[in-house]
């Protein structure tokens, strides 16, 4: 993310925050792949159960299977894979729950709920072998194929619905963490005894959660990409995390009044902590208004968001207006409770609520990738500048042609003193594309200039004590003081 091409904007505190926002995109993936299953051995208990079963007396041991006459013994780990009846019986003996029976039996489900399907298969097998019934309600034993995970579906769904509250959305993605050793053991058992077509534990569990949610939430769609809500389920702790993805709005803003920073600027004295201090009148802000809040607060209210991030295509200094078609920006609204808003109404609300300080236009819904586009676009900019020549102007024509002579010039600009505390000290080359509309008014000069992105335009006038070369001050051989500056146009799409 490059924020270095701005025209010397000041709210550097924002840069770090924005970088964090972008990284947040991938947080859930890191989370989902985090491996803390190693700390717990889910088979600890099961080994005890298996050992107990091993000790069961001989009368519980075998049965005749009328299909091929095998004698099946629960202690015998050799069994044909499902869907062979012997295989299904073996899986039941191992302690499979109804869900797992359904998914690994190889029997067609035909629209039945997995649990019902599994129960039907179990009943059928119990009919063949009544001894199975006694294994059936062995509360002590875990299903070795899921560690009784499917018993937790209701808890997970209830927690998810509670966490979602009244957030409105339609597209959801589910991320799930299942301890690795469970997945490995399940895979081993399923490969050995399950039908070839068996669905793995993870996708089966997600499918059950999904169908419960689809039933509970109107218009819900599960997506694999760009969800509106990302849900994370940790099956070890049954913790659920709901991440409502931000809503992004693209637009252009015009800043019609000077003295307003682009982004919120925390109070220098208290850094905005703990409800502010005396010097900021408990606002926590160095400047009460910011473009970010003048635009962001009405938008935040409309979308029920918790907070905003403001991504501008560069930024103008606090004392610089931004006119013309305005500066492109993307407003990011975090934790929105609604994803639809009337952007035309928002445009009007912003204009009237800010008393004409800031206007927006071209609002439309956007996405995170546009933040990067906005940040990376190197747009040329045009400015209107007015400055005063110390000692007055003797030769008007010579002054005008000196200013005009900068059209096409390549400037060598050493990092200005005013930003040196937060930017590397180096010399950069920037081109002045064109100079026009030069006019003299007493000891003042006004002109328009179009230049490359990242040009320090104030320094182009006053030279910053020779750090910018060439400069108008050097050409006129007199100190020049910038009176005001407007961004006239940002030449981007
Ligand atoms: Zn199971
Ligand atoms: Zn303060």
Which features characterize this protein?
14 strands, 493 residues, 4-stranded mixed β-sheet, Alpha-Beta Plaits, alpha+beta, disordered N terminus, 10-stranded mixed β-sheet, 3 domains, binds zinc ion
Structure explained in plain terms:
- With 493 residues, the protein is α+β, with helices and mostly antiparallel strands.
- The chain folds into three domains: 13-19 and 246-376, Alpha-Beta Plaits (2-Layer Sandwich), CATH 3.30.70.2510; 73-244, no CATH class; 380-491, Alpha-Beta Plaits, CATH 3.30.70.3190.
- The chain is built from 16 helices and 14 strands.
- The strands form two sheets. Strands 5, 6, 7, 8, 9, 10, 11, 12, 13 and 14 form a ten-stranded mixed sheet that branches. A four-stranded mixed sheet has the order 2-1-3-4.
- A hairpin with a 4-residue loop joins strand 3 (229-234) and strand 4 (239-244).
- It is elongated and about 115 Å long.
- One zinc ion (ZN) binds next to loops.
- Residues 96-97, 99-100, 143, 145-146, 150 line the site of one zinc ion.
Condensed summary:
With 493 residues, the protein is α+β, with helices and mostly antiparallel strands. The protein has helices at 13-24, 27-33, 43-54, 85-94, 98-104, 114-128, 132-136, 153-164, 180-193, 201-216, 291-303, 343-353, 368-376, 396-404, 457-462, 472-476, and strands at residues 171-177, 221-222, 229-234, 239-244, 247-255, 307-312, 321-334, 358-366, 380-389, 410-414, 427-441, 444-451, 468-469, 480-491. It contains 16 helices and 14 strands.
